[in-house]
Amino acid sequence: MHKNYLKIAAFLGALSVAMGAFAAHGLKKVVAEKSVAVFQTGVQYQMYHVFALLATGILYQFFQNKFITNAGKFFILGIILFSGSLYVLTFSEVLHSTAFSWIVFVTPLGGVTFIIGWFLLFLGIRK
Length: 127
Known about the structure:
It contains four helices and no strands. It has about 130 residues and is mainly α. It has one domain.
């Protein structure tokens, strides 16, 4: 399992660099500065949790238990829910669409998912 987390972290890390570059160079030309900041928050939290996922993959070698395994799953889910929802919100503005306005309720779920991931990581190391 740890090798899969390392591979996923590498992919998501590359994706966050690409998304950050897109925000810095292309996005600010088409949306308001506030939306760029929302997008960059998604990129920032994605990268933070890429490092958490890398650590999880490495720590799995030393602490092979369900808490560590589940921590990685929650970090991935958190990236999808938290960062993904912020990306969708920003792209909705690019498209001048309100079809995804409901997604603002997903962002806090992603935040809670990150917190659960960190708590599970703590339990996995503690055990």
